[in-house]
Write a structure and sequence with these properties.
Blueprint lengths: L1 H16 L16 E4 L1 H4 L5 H13 L2 H4 L3 E3 L5 E4 L5 E3 L8 H10 L3 E7 L15 H11 L3 E5 L8 H15 L4 E4 L17 E3 L11 E3 L4 E3 L1 H6 L13 E3 L11 H13 L4 E3 L8 H7 L2 H7 L8 E6 L2 E7 L5 E7 L5 E5 L22 E5 L5 E3 L4 E5 L3 E9 L3
Parallel strand pairs: 1-2, 1-12, 2-5, 5-6, 6-7, 7-8, 8-11
Antiparallel strand pairs: 3-4, 9-10, 13-14, 14-15, 15-20, 16-19, 17-18, 17-20
Helix pairs in contact: 6-7, 9-10, 9-11
Bound molecules: alpha-D-galactopyranose.
């Protein structure tokens, strides 16, 4: 018994020495986090009224009940540090203070997230957490914060693994369970070192509200949703319950067409990406609301296996993606990236689809599945070849369930 205890102790300290022991709070984000963030639509133009109104709109629109529980305040909420070094919110924008705002969000059955940065200043030029990590974590815990997004501007020569480890330790020391959202834009391959530290990590630079553009901002670029999707190649093996690849907050409701919004949402679900809405939910159209609250699509994203999907075929602007789901089910997305409609013929029985990473195969040659398209709720089965047209810049997203033979 004693020898056994010594072996366990030895293993634990070896894990700690190797830096592989989890520092982040356990048991959080077992499925990809869902919520809203202020940045994509509002940038620095935020205040407590916006956060309260958004919280109310998320309740009345059904978003909260569909799973979007985090209300995340991004950059520019900050005021000055007080005489003791504790960060305060901007008194003009947040006159009631962060504790009152957190209480309000909690009273509506939701959780609240906040933003800081590992450098001296945030990307918006506000006070960063460098040198104040433990104090900031304590302050957030006192306010009742549930999630911290931690950015990477003005970090000079800091190494990201050290910087994110310091804040992860500070959060643990503060004692209030918080989801830790790592935002260093994928520059230093966080998927290789961030799993013990954070619950999600950005894989790319910033998203922008176009289909496939690249927008230059001088020293950095932002990318449209298809460009961001392409940057996820090779990363699926790093995602799973409690540790997710984050291809950035969504632009659903901000893209030029409903078709593009739908395709964007479907592909984020196929990736098992965090679903953080970035639109103005107070004024969204019925079509945007229907996309964001589509429970069948959300269920693809939130599936308990937590397996990110993979492209099975890519040709001439048409991609066919598969995602294994619990209960031997599968999701299949037909993504038309082109600006004209495309016909798709897919003879299931002739396709040898396999998820080699997880050793899973649908085995269409010997197993029939029912098909349900999750936006139109039309049905079918894999007994017959699929013969459909996918509209321009759109998706058909199917759930496949085994039919007992
Ligand atoms: C960076 C992040 C964005 C946003 C802004 C705020 O660009 O990647 O998501 O948080 O900073 O300034």
């Amino acid at each position: 018994m004693k020898a056994f205890a010594l072996i366990i102790l030895g293993l634990l300290s070896a894990a700690a020495a190797a830096g592989t022991a989890d520092i982040k709070f356990p048991d959080l984000a077992q499925t990809p986090p869902m919520g809203w963030n202020s940045w994509n639509t509002f940038g620095c133009n935020i205040d407590e009224n916006l956060i309260r109104q958004t919280t109310d709109a998320m309740v009345s629109s059904g978003m909260r009940d569909a799973g979007y529980v985090y209300v995340n305040i991004d950059d520019c909420w900050h005021g000055e540090r007080d005489a003791n070094g504790f960060i305060q919110p901007d008194p003009r924008r947040f006159p009631a203070g962060m504790k009152a705002l957190a209480d309000y969000v909690h009273s509506r059955g939701m959780k609240i997230g906040i933003y800081s940065d590992a450098g001296a200043t945030t990307c918006g030029g506000h006070p960063g957490s460098q040198g104040h990590e433990y104090q900031d974590a304590l302050q957030y815990a006192r306010w009742g914060i549930d999630l911290l997004k931690y950015d990477w501007c003005a970090t000079e020569d800091r190494t990201p693994a050290e910087a994110y480890r310091t804040m992860a330790r500070a959060l643990r020391a503060a004692g209030r369970p918080m989801v830790f959202s790592i935002c260093e834009w994928g520059d230093n391959k966080p998927w290789l070192w961030a799993q013990p530290l954070g619950h999600l990590w950005r894989t790319t630079g910033d998203i922008t509200n176009c289909w496939d553009c690249v927008v230059s901002h001088g020293s950095w670029e932002s990318h449209g949703v298809m460009a961001i999707l392409d940057k996820q190649a090779g990363l699926r093996k790093y995602a799973g319950p409690g540790h997710w690849n984050d291809p950035d907050m969504m632009e659903v409701g901000n893209l030029p067409s409903v078709n593009e919004d739908r395709a964007h949402f479907a592909m984020w679900a196929m990736l098992a990406a965090p679903l953080i809405a970035g639109n103005d939910v107070r004024t969204m159209t019925a079509a945007t609301r229907a996309i964001l609250t589509n429970r069948d699509v959300i269920a693809i994203d939130q599936d308990s296996l937590g397996i990110s999907g993979f492209p099975y075929r890519k040709e001439a602007g048409l991609e066919i993606w598969f995602k294994p789901l619990s209960g031997s089910a599968w999701a299949v997305a037909l993504l038309n990236r082109a600006s004209t409609p495309q016909k798709v013929q897919f003879d299931w029985k002739k396709e040898d689809v396999q998820d080699a990473l997880n050793d899973l195969r649908p085995q269409f040659d010997r197993q029939v599945y029912s098909l349900t398209e999750l936006f139109s709720h039309t049905g079918g089965s894999t007994a017959k070849p699929l013969d459909v047209t996918v509209p321009a810049r759109d998706v058909l997203l199917y759930r496949l369930e085994k039919i007992a033979l």
